[in-house]
Write a structure and sequence with these properties.
By secondary structure, the chain is α/β, with parallel strands linked by helices. It contains five helices and eight strands.
């Protein structure tokens, strides 16, 4: 189970208490915001793409969308969303719980600058009933991000 991978990941840093497991579903931005009692923008949604056939994750604020032109300028290729049935195999987490922690080896993670507008954000923690409470700077470290990007509209 992916949340167990995330739990073990945070446990090795003595940060397991950051994981929140509400009873309510957190699979979408709207559900997560309602479940966690925050505005949708604070939900750090993790989107999975294929670029040149290789997986890539981008974490954005919950209220923004991808700007395809900026994405192509940043990554020098057009990205396409990974089909739902392939996400878990390529990333290590199933849709609804995709997060930037404990992902498959070789999957780069980037954070969108839209997250910097908030002091606290909530990415998923490996399943559709979990989240992690972090600052954007902490998220950068915990996710071993490759860098900050500006690819939102």
């Amino acid at each position: 189970m992916a949340i167990e991978k995330v739990r073990a990941y945070f446990r090795q840093m003595d940060e397991e208490d950051r994981i929140i497991e509400p009873e309510a579903d957190t699979a979408t931005v709207e559900l997560a915001a309602k479940s966690l009692g925050c505005e949708p923008a604070r939900i750090a949604k993790t989107l999975s793409f294929l670029v040149d056939g290789k997986p890539l994750l981008v974490v954005l604020a919950g209220d923004v969308r991808i700007d395809n032109h900026k994405f192509k300028q940043t990554f020098h290729k057009k990205g396409r969303m990974i089909p739902a049935e392939r996400v878990e195999g390529l990333i290590g987490h199933a849709p609804g719980g995709v997060c930037p922690f404990a992902v498959n080896e070789g999957v780069p993670v980037y954070l969108d600058t839209s997250l910097k507008a908030y002091d606290i954000v909530y990415p998923a923690a490996g399943n559709a009933h979990s989240a992690v409470r972090v600052t954007p700077e902490e998220l950068y470290g915990f996710a071993h991000a490759q860098g900050w990007v500006d690819i939102h509209k």
